[in-house]
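Work Package 4 report. The design task specified in the project plan requires that, given a folded chain encoded as structure tokens, an amino acid be chosen for each position. We show below one input record used in the internal validation round.
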């Protein structure tokens, strides 16, 4: 049966545009000092982010107009291609190492992070496969087993890139999709326990992750090293008060807080816009998640429902992890805040995902 598309969910679009506006403003403010020091141009990062945002919005509108069911036959090809690109970061001369992490492909004046494409392709692949034969998941060995191997492959690949935060976000979205897709609760409980143990093992086996964990438990035990990020982030949030210090008035961005325009931009937002600004951003994310879940529930087919769920959970988990790190509720992980943090690959592929979500809302009941 061919479904007639309707008007898209305007609330999703509005929430994303407002978040993107917050992001543009905060990238301009948070990156100005670093940009002036590094490039002698305080607008350097802002100008690049604007270009990426415009490109992302254009692609978002294009994706929103294409029938999402056309993606299903190509889901396996998307996944294989994104895995190959993720492996390419380890090729000398192709991969680019930043702060000890090898996550980027060097493209000359710009760089590309394959894990952002991997997030999207994994969700499309899983939604397509799970919608074909959901009852097969009840068999642990022949049904659920291959998906567990895929989770292990994705997690291992991202851990080799020293990207634990993205691994948690992707595997968390896959976990919920498997549960909703028909896996038995007892199998999912076991998988959840194994996942938690895996995260702890990843932290214990890597000295820098272990330092982050101990710094999270007691940041004041080592305020100049393992606890530095957390303490400086809390200083920024705490000094913002109710209404903030005002736009552009952050003190922490003067090289006190590391990664002030990427991973910790929410701390600068809290410092300049205060509790009110931080809550506004939080409510916009909740609004986006609510409308995304509503779209998943009302989709006409299993592929659309699982795809909407995966896209929504992916963005929601990434936002929760980032804000949890910034507020000291989670150990430090290198993961950006969707729509807000500086970063071209992350922004463009997140907007592509939103384009798919808007697309799905056009066919929802």
């Amino acid at each position: 049966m061919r479904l007639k598309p309707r008007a898209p969910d305007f609330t999703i679009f509005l929430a994303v545009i407002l978040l993107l506006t917050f992001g543009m403003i905060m990238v301009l403010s948070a990156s100005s000092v670093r940009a002036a020091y590094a490039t002698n141009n305080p607008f350097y990062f802002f100008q690049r982010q604007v270009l990426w945002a415009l490109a992302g919005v254009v692609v978002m509108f294009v994706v929103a107009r294409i029938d999402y069911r056309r993606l299903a036959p190509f889901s396996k090809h998307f996944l294989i291609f994104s895995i190959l690109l993720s492996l390419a970061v380890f090729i000398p001369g192709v991969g680019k190492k930043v702060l000890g992490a090898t996550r980027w492909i060097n493209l000359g004046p710009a760089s590309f992070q394959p894990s952002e494409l991997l997030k999207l392709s994994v969700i499309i692949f899983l939604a397509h496969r799970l919608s074909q034969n959901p009852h097969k998941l009840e068999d642990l060995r022949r049904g659920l087993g291959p998906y567990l191997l895929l989770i292990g492959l994705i997690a291992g690949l991202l851990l080799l890139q020293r990207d634990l935060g993205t691994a948690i976000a992707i595997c968390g979205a896959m976990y919920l999709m498997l549960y909703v897709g028909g896996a038995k609760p007892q199998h999912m409980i076991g998988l959840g326990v194994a996942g938690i143990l895996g995260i702890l093992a990843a932290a214990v086996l890597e000295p820098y992750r272990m330092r982050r964990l101990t710094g999270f438990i007691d940041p004041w035990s080592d305020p100049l090293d393992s606890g530095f990020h957390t303490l400086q982030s809390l200083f920024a949030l705490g000094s913002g008060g109710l209404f903030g210090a005002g736009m552009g008035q952050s003190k922490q961005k003067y090289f006190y807080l590391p990664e002030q325009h990427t991973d910790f931009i929410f701390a600068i937002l809290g410092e300049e816009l205060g509790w009110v600004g931080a809550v506004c951003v939080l409510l916009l994310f909740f609004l986006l998640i609510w409308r995304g879940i509503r779209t998943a529930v009302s989709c006409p087919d299993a592929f659309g429902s699982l795809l909407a769920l995966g896209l929504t959970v992916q963005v929601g988990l990434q936002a929760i992890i980032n804000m949890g790190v910034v507020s000291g509720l989670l150990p430090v992980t290198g993961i950006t805040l969707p729509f807000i943090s500086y970063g071209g690959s992350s922004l463009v592929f997140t907007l592509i995902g939103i384009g798919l979500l808007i697309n799905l809302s056009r066919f929802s009941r």
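The chain has one domain: 10-363. Validation will be extended to a larger panel in the next phase.
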